Amino acid sequence: MTYRICPQHGDSIAVPQLVFTNLARADECAVRVALYVLSTGSTDPRDIAHALGLKSVRMAENALRWWAGAGLLEVERGNGLPAAQKELLSPEEIRFSALRDPMVSTLTTEVQMYLGKTLSSRDMQRLVSLYLQEEYAVEVILLCAAHVAGQGKGTLGALDRELRDWRQAGVETGEDAEQYLKLLQLRAQREERAAELLHRSVSDLTLADRRTIRRWYEEMSFDDAMVAEAVLQADGKNEVRYVNGILKSWHGRGLRTVSEVRGSGTLAAPESGSLRVDRSEPSGHDILKRKGGRPLRLKRED
């Protein structure tokens, strides 16, 4: 089945080449927001979220911020402070909010329990502001608090940073948070497996190493068997960077399984580096076992 573009009757809009250039990098939400902005000229995140049926206004704000970084939009100065720089709620405002919204009391009680300490007045202000001003869902904050506490980071600053990382990853609801926690657990298991194959400790892996390992599984779609094969071919070079070069080469050539790698003639024989990879066994010709009387011809040097 083939298709063609229907005739246009004045209902088309101009789309900058910049949008097409960034299609491979932009997610679905960002593309939808870009088309809506180009069509209507509106950059109000609330209007965008309502018109496109997004889960939250924050998703529209993140998409607008992404396109501003890509060069499609300009940031207008003087329109107020960003969320991270807003003035925190005062203790009186927090007490009043707790009377109106019972989730405030639940939030402060549960977070202190997860972090294992009583929050200071300043930290309490920051925590409630995350909920009321920056619109983080209570269930997301609680799941994140349990996560950072499990990593031994029992501070509100660690919770704040982790929440922002989650939002950048698209986490907006409790369901999103649960799925993201499963992904984080899977990444940790993969890092442990890769470190074991490389005969290294997980604690020795740098942040760059962890991101590289993540790409092996999530971007290149390799499994443990392919990583193990790459480590085998690395021949003792237990560096993530070296193994990454092997895996990138296979990915570029479209090799996805160990059998494809071995069948492609790229597997070097571990016993001898001089064996040809296009032969299953040596040819049998040994220059050191020449017949007697046969002249030895030396290559002329220019």
Written account of the structure:
It contains 14 helices and no strands. It has helices at residues 17-21, 28-40, 45-52, 57-70, 91-100, 102-115, 121-132, 138-150, 156-168, 174-197, 207-218, 224-233, 240-252, 258-263. The protein starts with 16 loop residues before the first helix and ends in a 39-residue tail after the last helix.
In short:
With 302 residues, the chain is an all-alpha fold.
Which short descriptors sum up this protein?
302 residues, mainly alpha, Arc Repressor Mutant, subunit A, 14 helices, flat
Q: Do you know the CATH topology of the largest domain?
A: Arc Repressor Mutant, subunit A
| Overall tally of structural domains | 3
Radius of gyration: 29 Å
What is the architecture of the largest domain at the second tier of CATH? Answer: Orthogonal Bundle
Instruction: Report on the biggest sheet.
Output: none
Spatial shape: flat
Task: Give, in order, the helices and strands.
Answer: HHHHHHHHHHHHHH
Q: In CATH, what is the class of the largest domain? A: Mainly Alpha
Q: What is the arithmetic mean of pLDDT?
A: 81
